[in-house]
Write a structure and sequence with these properties.
This protein has about 230 residues and is mainly α. It is built from 10 helices and 2 strands; from the N terminus they run αααααααββααα. β1 and β2 form a beta hairpin. The radius of gyration is 20 Å and the shape is elongated. It starts with a helix and ends with a helix. Bound molecules: protoporphyrin IX containing FE.
């Protein structure tokens, strides 16, 4: 088994399985964040954030998610270094200048680094403030859950206040669109690694992956832009 994960295909397998796990997280994350566009003063979003912060199963998933990111990043670094070494002086001839290879597939590591840089800003914006340091924007508010009034953290006020700054919206647009490019290659590539791809399915996975990638990337971008334009004050 350790031989398998030490082999090139084993490392790719780990990248693919963690990549698809992160894709599942993105879908849940995007769905919950879409509640930021409900014009109810943030009540639904706060209810969802409260559920996510208190549900034991979700709490259990948080370290698993962190581990997923870590494995994905570590194996991406190992594989990229190995590929560069293997190509040696031919790196530029067989890599960046090769025709007919999509731009995203040649730049997965660079795109990953852009997403990681975005994530550092993003975690500092929200997760650190909600879980560790607190923030002046994060007061308490009341929501009604199943007829019972409950006091919860005002996560909506924090997100809304953060998206009141144009530079933040621009950083989110860059991070989300970088994510979209990353997924246009990563999605079909994962199914290829699992051996679930032939000439017909390769085309299908590419179309499904491209639609999914832009749906997610444009979705996150739109939330930030619409919050900035229509939900301030
Ligand atoms: C409109 C865009 C986004 C909004 C409003 C948003 C909102 C949030 C909030 C409020 C949290 C803190 C949740 C908590 O601690 O309970 C969070 C955490 C997180 N976000 Fe985002 N997010 C956005 C985009 C993204 C994107 C594009 C990614 C991935 C590339 C991402 C990945 C994460 C991760 C990994 C965490 C930490 C895990 C967690 O607490 O669930 N987010 N986000």
């Amino acid at each position: 088994m350790s031989n398998f994960f030490g082999s090139s295909i084993g490392k790719k397998f780990l990248m693919s399985i963690t990549g698809l796990f992160l894709v599942t997280f993105l879908l849940v994350h995007l769905s919950l964040n879409a509640l930021l566009l409900v014009p109810d003063g943030g009540e639904l979003f706060n209810a969802a954030a409260h559920f996510m912060a208190t549900n034991p199963l979700i709490k259990l998933m948080e370290p698993v998610l962190g581990l997923g990111f870590l494995v994905h990043i570590i194996y991406a670094s190992i594989l990229t270094l190995q590929n560069q070494k293997a190509r040696g002086n031919d790196r530029y001839a067989s890599g960046n200048n090769t025709k007919n290879v999509a731009w995203a597939s040649k730049n997965m590591y660079v795109l990953g680094a852009v997403i990681l840089a975005f994530l550092v800003v993003h975690i500092a914006n929200f997760w650190v403030k909600m879980k560790i340091t607190g923030d002046s924007l994060l007061g308490h508010t009341h929501i009604t859950v199943a007829g019972v009034e409950t006091q919860v953290e005002n996560a909506y006020a924090l997100v809304n206040g953060t998206f009141g700054m144009l530079w933040v919206v621009i950083v989110y647009a860059i991070g989300s669109l970088g994510l979209a490019y990353h997924l246009t290659h990563g999605f079909w590539s994962a199914f290829q690694t699992f051996g679930l791809s032939n000439s017909i399915w390769r085309k299908r996975w590419t179309v499904i992956g491209t639609v999914f990638a832009w749906f997610v990337g444009i979705g996150f971008t739109l939330i930030a832009v619409l919050q900035y334009l229509f939900f301030q004050g």
